[in-house]
Amino acid sequence: MSQLIDGKAFAENLRKTIASQVVDIEKEHHIRPGLAVVLVGEDPASQVYVRNKEKFAIECGFKSETFRLPATTSQAELLELIQTLNNDATIHGILVQLPLPKGLNEEEVLYAIDPQKDVDGFHPINIGLLSIGKPSLIPCTPLGSLLLLQDKLGKDLSGKHAVIVGRSNIVGKPMMQLLLSQNCTVTVAHSRTKDVASLCREADIVIAAVGVPELVKGDWIKKGATVIDVGINRIEVDGKTKLVGDVEFATAKENAEFITPVPGGVGPMTIACLLRNTLTAMCQQHKIVDPNKL
Ligand code: GUN
């Protein structure tokens, strides 16, 4: 029988830990983390994410600033706001909610963020630092997935074979670097991989991050393996919308020892790790010891 990995509870605990660290640091150093979130346009899913980021940042004692800009905002206006935030000493973390409306150059915007304030960990400097084994700000979803893995399997993941299904810049590739840094043997499968099923059957850890509903079948999971499902897909069942992951959960849970549900698995970890990264960014900017080193 498998054990569910309760990401919601883990994220709640992580936020409580962060809130108490914020109190301690404020007492000693008289500063508190500042997070700026920039939302351009009116994408409904993005509005929900941004509201939650704001809510949890405030709950953890952060200074939280949200900039809601119209979809007609120009590239120059957006870049100017980022420069202002880069120069604002009370802001330690900047997040531009993706996707940006059509016509805006996402790459140029993300690369304009000061790498020290890049709490998404998407800037090439932060990706590069992760790749050379000197991680600074790590992308939130891979970081959250690693924390869940370590909670169940212990800190030492040495020698475990991890198969990552998906090679995105946001999840698959940084997850590969993170697991390598933890001495896992890592295989990255993607849409052109010849036999993803056989690769998964060899895995001690399967990370599914492709964005295809239930692509990873239950009989691809080795008995006793750990499954981290990063997918959040909305599908129609009998005229109703249902959230499913990239893993066929009902069958996979028969083989896995530990498995994340969707929803309630990796999802809640992303915002908790954004807050963790903002605290890390503040500590790095002020040369304070980071209480959350990996
Ligand atoms: N949109 C969906 N997920 C994310 C994320 O992790 N960061 C940003 N900036 N935008 C997103």
From TrEMBL:
Q: Which reaction does it catalyse?
A: (6R)-5,10-methenyltetrahydrofolate + H2O = (6R)-10-formyltetrahydrofolate + H(+); (6R)-5,10-methylene-5,6,7,8-tetrahydrofolate + NADP(+) = (6R)-5,10-methenyltetrahydrofolate + NADPH
To which pathway does this protein belong?
One-carbon metabolism; tetrahydrofolate interconversion
Annotated NADP(+) binding lies at G166, R167, S168, I232
Its GO CC terms?
cytosol
Which residue ranges does the record assign to the Tetrahydrofolate dehydrogenase/cyclohydrolase NAD(P)-binding domain? 139-285
Q: Gene3D superfamilies annotated for this entry? A: Leucine Dehydrogenase, chain A, domain 1, NAD(P)-binding Rossmann-like Domain
Every Tetrahydrofolate dehydrogenase/cyclohydrolase catalytic domain range: 5-120
What does the UniProt keyword field contain?
A: Amino-acid biosynthesis, Histidine biosynthesis, Hydrolase, Methionine biosynthesis, Multifunctional enzyme, NADP, One-carbon metabolism, Oxidoreductase, Purine biosynthesis
EC number(s) recorded for this UniProt protein? 1.5.1.5, 3.5.4.9
Q: Which Pfam families match?
A: THF_DHG_CYH, THF_DHG_CYH_C
On whether Transit peptide is a keyword of this UniProt record, the answer is no
GO MF term (any one): methylenetetrahydrofolate dehydrogenase (NADP+) activity
SUPFAM superfamilies per UniProt: Aminoacid dehydrogenase-like, N-terminal domain, NAD(P)-binding Rossmann-fold domains
Asked if the keyword Oxidoreductase belongs to this entry, the reply reads yes
Where do the coiled-coil regions begin and end? none
- Quaternary organization: Homodimer.
Q: What does the record give as the function of this protein?
A: Catalyzes the oxidation of 5,10-methylenetetrahydrofolate to 5,10-methenyltetrahydrofolate and then the hydrolysis of 5,10-methenyltetrahydrofolate to 10-formyltetrahydrofolate.
Family in the record? Belongs to the tetrahydrofolate dehydrogenase/cyclohydrolase family.
Official protein name in the record? Bifunctional protein FolD
Provide the taxonomic classification.
Bacteria, Pseudomonadati, Pseudomonadota, Gammaproteobacteria, Cardiobacteriales
